[in-house]
Specification:
The chain is α+β, with helices and mostly antiparallel strands and 147 residues long. The chain is built from two helices and nine strands. 30% of the residues are buried.
Amino acid sequence: MAHQDGTVPAHDAGGRAPMAVVTAVIVREGRLLVVSKQAAPDVFYLPGGKPDPGESPLETLARELDEELGVEPLEPRFLTDVEAVAALEGVPMRLTVFEARVDGEPRPGAELADLRWISGHEGDLRFSPALRDHVLPLLRRRGTLAA
């Protein structure tokens, strides 16, 4: 679990490494693509997911974007690693974030409840802790999102 200051230990109390998750920052016209899952339709995340055994981060990214949105990442570039608490599971998570364009129009796949293009200033949407506390501030500092 997270420390009181919000940081996440490298390993949990049982000595387990954080849950690995690979996600994509996809921005069009200054707006970020976020998705919600049927398991928690009121919480928005970056698209992506957990790697399968032996899968590289870029392989995970390609598989997850295909499964969730029916698109392929184009020119993915590593953006950042984020350590946070997973919104659904409540366990330490290491989020590997790539920036990418995609090869078509994203459409929500089976496990998704919704997708939206956001400015990051929406007061009526609930974002995952990693998105709210780490990725959105980074994108704002870089001027990636529309004001």
